[in-house]
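Sorry to interrupt, but I need a hand with the structure work. I would like you to pick a protein and set down its sequence and fold. Please put the record directly below this note.
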Amino acid sequence: MNGVVQKLINDHVEEDRLLDELRELSNGDEMRRKFSIFCRNLKYHIYLEEEILFPKLDLSDPMVIELMNQHVAMWNLMAQIEESYDINSLKMLSSLLKVHNAIEETNVYPRLNELKLEEINEQIPDGWVPKFMRGKTLTF
């Protein structure tokens, strides 16, 4: 497995770990701190997929389109949770992420693994949002 794909899978494991920790916390400050780390990690992961990795695949593929739509839903849920922490929204985000990650790991990452991918050291630009959110007001 190439290093880029392994990093993406490791990101999924870390996202799950952080979500498990968040569900167990009762301290508001600690929840906000951990959720901030989770959001930063997931937003960067989404950025890498949409700007660098998915373009190496067929962007008209219905599966890639669906994954990009799910990125928008996750982005909106993160914003909603940041605004007012709600355990039900966190559970919804966690459920969506589990399905999303399973699709990527089963159907997309094997295709990426076949490509010669270089290590990625990009920084997420300030104000970046998923492609399907640009110029639109979308809510979840």
Observations:
- The helical segments are 3-24, 28-53, 62-83, 87-113.
- The first helix runs from residue 3 to 24.
- DSSP finds four helices and no strands in the chain.
